[in-house]
Amino acid sequence: MSDPPKAPTNDRADPADPATGGSAPGGIEVAIVSGLSGAGRSTAAKCLEDLGWFVVDNLPPELITTMVDLGSRASGDVTRIAVVLDVRSRAFTHDLAAVIRDLDHRGYRPRVLFLEASDAALIRRYEANRRAHPLQGSGRLIDGVEAERALLGPLRDEADLVIDTSDLSVHQLRAEVERGFTMAVPKPSLTVVSFGYKYGLPIDADLVIDMRFLPNPHWIPELRDHTGLEPAVSDYVLSQEGASEFLDRYVALIDLVNGGYQREGKRYLTLAVGCTGGKHRSVAVAEELRRRLTGDRLTVHVQHRDLGRE
């Protein structure tokens, strides 16, 4: 389980407090991600990337301020920067303390996330990966773990958020990071891709639905040259027996699947909707799915891969 955000132990402003953690120069938010080797820094970094942070791994502490200054001059293209640090920079604890004070002085008020785990959990993870600890040297694995824990003690004491990952799965860790670094987690993104089976399946599809059970407008002379983007074709497709019931049930299924994907940390879903040529039925149904699914739960994008190929 994770500790709640800690009150600052020094005179730094609390970046989680709206009263003291207001807009920084250039509108930049800054986070420092560190902790014990094997405690989950890489997972936390990937989670922050998914939340829209620009993540830099193992940047030398003396370059952090330069990086933040560059971000503040990026005309709004970069608004949140997270720097992931570990003991590969051997003098980093002293240097990092000075960098944090300098960023505070400049008004950036970095938020520090510290990841830790029990000795037993860390040793188990290292043994599973058959890797040596970066501070182990010629000693035992436990020697490296203990040396790092002592080295990082001062940084842990000043962290704004400490997460103990000993008993957390990857998905639980992601959820902890999301709770700690977002006021509201961004909505999952659903991309609906219409396609024609004659041109092959989209290779990146998570889910595929086949609309070839509906009558094909291609065989209606007055509809053949039109597409599923046009009302005449769309009305024809959606009025067919079974179309409305299918969409009702599939929208409910997407809600169910989306909830499970969110719990597993997956925030990007691609749904492929196919018909024979990717011109009529799949296009009309993809647009109808956009209409039904767009809302508070999902951000929906539609692409018509094969429209115009005939």
Strand elements, count: 9
Number of helices: 10
Q: In terms of structural class, how would the helical and strand content be classed?
A: alpha/beta
Gap from first CA to last CA: 56 Å
Radius of gyration: 25 Å
Content of β-strand: 15-25%
As a percent range, the share of helical residues equals 25-40%
List SSEs in N-to-C order: EHEHEHEHHEHEEHHHEHE
Unreliable spans are: 1-11, 13-23
Shape: elongated
Q: Quick check: average pLDDT?
A: 83
Q: Describe the largest sheet.
A: 5 strands, parallel
Strand order of the largest sheet: 2-3-1-4-5
Summarize this structure briefly.
The chain has helices spanning 41-50, 64-72, 92-106, 119-129, 141-158, 170-181, 221-224, 231-238, 243-263, 281-293; strands at residues 29-35, 54-57, 80-84, 111-116, 161-164, 189-196, 207-210, 268-275, 299-304. It has 310 residues and is of the alpha/beta class.
